[in-house]
Design goal:
Structural class: mainly alpha
Helix content: 40-55%
Strand content: under 5%
Radius of gyration: 24 Å
Order of helices and strands: HHH
Length: 59
Amino acid sequence: MARHNRTPGFHPSANPKYIEAMRELRRSNAAQPHTPKPQRGTRSEREREAIRDQKRDMP
């Protein structure tokens, strides 16, 4: 807080709505861990897997 004493016109204040919104973000699925890079595979691997899955679903 001491560093803001030199800034004219600055008055620190709490923003409870912002704080609550940030808490909700952390609770949402957007905050879930991402897939680690080694488990993602390459584009071509994912493409082949998608084609394989489509063929599996066909009658």
